[in-house]
What we know:
- There is one protein chain.
- The protein is mainly β.
- It is 0% helix and 56% strand.
- It contains no helices and 28 strands.
- The chain has strands spanning 9-13, 18-23, 28-34, 49-54, 60-65, 70-75, 80-86, 91-97, 102-107, 112-117, 123-128, 133-138, 144-149, 154-159, 164-170, 175-180, 186-191, 201-206, 211-217, 222-227, 233-238, 243-248, 253-259, 264-270, 275-280, 285-290, 295-301, 306-311.
- The chain has a 4-stranded antiparallel sheet with strand order 3-2-1-28, with no helix packed on it. It has a 4-stranded antiparallel sheet with strand order 4-5-6-7, with no helix packed on it.
- The protein is globular and about 50 Å long.
- Residues 102-254 form the YNCE-like beta-propeller domain.
- Keywords: Signal.
- It comes from Alkaliphilus hydrothermalis.
- This is YVTN family beta-propeller protein.
Amino acid sequence: MNYLSQGNLIVSNFSDDSISIVDVTIGKEVRRISLKTIGKFIPSQPLGPHHIALDSNLKYLYVVNSFDNSLSKIDLIKEEIINTVMVGSCPSQVILCKKYGCIYVANSDSNSITVLDLNELSIQLQIPTDEMPHGMAMTKDQERIFVANREEKTLTEICTSLNEKKETHRVACNPWHLRLSGDGDLLFVVNYSHQEGEQGKVEIYDIHGMELVDEITLGKMPVEVASDWGNEHLYVTDSDLDQLYVYSLKEKRLLKSIKLNKMPHGIEIDYNKNLLFVSSIQNNVIDIVSCRSKRVIRSIEVGKEPTSVVII
């Protein structure tokens, strides 16, 4: 299937229950897969595909459905749902741990992590977290997973070899989304706040000792972040101000603000091509930003309310 070529994008469209396949080279959506018509039955309610994870052989896509409280496994080649499993309430993110053959799903309204068998898609156990878990990040060695508990101002650390809660880390603000640096040594914690006049914050932790390395204050509503391989630049989306911030981690200052389409959300970086891909929830597009020129070079229409972006 040409549309599954390396370098293309897979995008989850929250409001129309679909998955978009985007060919970056030609700058076009080349496939849209409806999650309501490829299964054995048609769901009676919206699914709300929020976050996605692609397996290492690029065949199966795992989708958490926030409205349906479920996780779906999709065969991208056959374009069919293999299985759908009920998890917790309002699942927000999914991580695949190939090392131990597990899937981890954060359930925001159940205050838990559902652990499933990667092959069988059967539930193994539920790990309790603090209030409102949302974002997750797994270390490079796949031995630890960090979970951001937005309302409790904590990070839950899970040991993947035992599937046990290892430790709880107190943070300064309300952690929302998490991302590891390119080298895997730093954890970027994006903080959530709707308080009037309060600026956005990104905290940086050394994952080895979970010590606070730095705290960045910028924008109003940062959502997700990505960094380059050398930990020189941090890229931050701001949903309220429709901006992408380019922040110098070495100089500790904001280098540039790039105007994006409305309500930028998910962000992924192509290290080889030096390109950033940012989803715009309100304008239903993926903005492509050049890391070199630091400007938007193309916007590609996808489905309604695109959230998560994965590079094939």
